[in-house]
Amino acid sequence: SVLKRFQQLNAKVLLSEDGHRLEGKEINMLPKLAEIVEGLPSLEKVIIIASKPDSHSKDISCIRNSCFLDEFLKMGVEADGSVPPMKFEQVSFSHPITITYTSGSTGLPKGIVHGSSVLLAEANTFFLNFDSDRDSRLISIMPAGTIVWLMHISVSFFGQTLVLYEGAPYFLNPTYFWDLLEKQKISIVFIFPNVLDEMQNRNFVPRETQNLSALKLIALVGSIAKLKTYDFLQSILKDTVFSSVYGIFMYNSFGN
């Protein structure tokens, strides 16, 4: 599926880790990268991000036009070791900056091109709709690669604090998720409704002494939330706003 999406773009540059850990297993990405690169003749450079200190010992010669990230960055260094100043260019609102894909539920996924105006749309969402500011702390219970990960760019752009979490937030103990919100003083949560459904079924609720006063908003993403999910949240978080922001494939993280 990765190959099919990139073939639609005639991609010229590909960035990827050499591997990652998933559910306790080490996943080697290099064989997959080699297969993807062979199917993309348009690629001019493949930049591999080392996931571990010993990653550079891996043989990447089978991946055409590839190099590790640190090698690529050295290409921009002058002979005397200095780095040339960055150049900024003013572009129009329609200038493309990102492409996101539809889910594919009604046919092949379609690439939606978004311009730089999306930053204003996200500023409107975060600062006005979500009533956040530079002191806000957000947590995203999202697997890497989902559309919501584009939100992370915006959070950095606004100077807010982002907390990332991978895996089931209730795996370690029944109150771990709520403990995390309390410890990190989280103000906004992005989470799948089915995760909250599972918490409700298992009665994984905050402790009576839990201090969640910093929590202002829970945004339910990815799918339509059931009425019982809202009832569950209302019963345990009476002073928190709940928002449903599913369907963001088409308008790229809350609008363009």
UniProtKB/TrEMBL annotation:
Location of the AMP-dependent synthetase/ligase domain: 10-247
Matches recorded under Gene3D superfamilies: N-terminal domain of ligase-like
PROSITE patterns attached to this UniProt entry: AMP_BINDING
InterPro entries: AMP-binding_CS, AMP-dep_synth/lig_dom, ANL_N_sf
SUPFAM superfamilies associated with the record: Acetyl-CoA synthetase-like
Signal peptide span: none
GO MF: acetoacetate-CoA ligase activity
Pfam families from the UniProt entry: AMP-binding
Highest taxon, organism lineage: Eukaryota
PANTHER family found in the cross-reference section: ACETOACETYL-COA SYNTHETASE
Annotated protein name in UniProt: Acetoacetyl-CoA synthetase
